[in-house]
Amino acid sequence: MLRRSGPIGTLIALLAVLLWAPAPAAAAPDDSCRVLAPGASAAAERAVAAACEQVAAGVWYTWGGGHGPEPGATYGQVDPSDPASEHDPERLGFDCSGLVRHAYARATGSDVLNGVASAQYYTHRAAGRFTAAQGLAPLVPGDLLVWGTSRDLHHIAIYLGAGRMAEARQSGTKLMVSDVRLTSGYYGAVRVNPGPVEGPLFRTWGTGVWTKAEPKLSAARVYAFPGPTTIRVGCQKHAEEVTSDGYTNDVWSYLPDYNAWMTNIYIQGPAWLDGVPACGT
């Protein structure tokens, strides 16, 4: 057999090793629950840590869990639409928004995100909002991801970074770390401002009160307040006159957190709100 020696032989031997060496195994996804990227505020990192503490403890998803008088795990309820929830009343845990409420209460020392997923997304404590079209690029750990439509935001989770999130997903499962699902109705994300809130704040009254895409009753519906809510008002203007619940008023307020309008009839205060500028001035 002819044997090659010297540099050429060494090169051939090296090529043979490279060609026959097994391909390196693909890196396993990082299933740890922790901050996985830079850029988050100290409060957001604390919120991630609080959520991950519950994931590590093996806490159950429970429908309605986490919505007691104070933040924290509670026994759930039976969801009439989900047979898997039959054991939720026996389990101490969180639903998706209950986990978010708990995490940010632990992070801030105050119950800043009490409410369901839609109330948490539309919070007046928003420091920034991101659309589905923007993807994950602008997000940092602690941002809240939501799924659904503007009228019905039905799921919320806490972003960890690197395309991963902590979530209370569904009955019959425990809290988990998952890949972010950019399909299946992903709507966008909100960054929480845990500090003082700028802008005039007011309370709404009534239930099932719709905000509108324009300041008129015939405009497209955006979101209905399930009950009294704290809102941030950007400006107000005279527009279509509305009569409802014994009141008549032609003043509408623009709500920047909803990108929508609301008749001042359902905002507590005078017909023309004190301290709110006129739109366009």
UniProtKB/TrEMBL annotation:
Protein keywords: Hydrolase, Protease, Signal, Thiol protease
NlpC/P60 domain span: 41-198
Superkingdom, taxonomy of origin: Bacteria
Family: Belongs to the peptidase C40 family.
Protein name as annotated: C40 family peptidase
InterPro entries linked to this entry: NLP_P60_dom (IPR000064), Papain-like_cys_pep_sf (IPR038765), PG_Endopeptidase_C40 (IPR051794)
Keyword Protease: yes
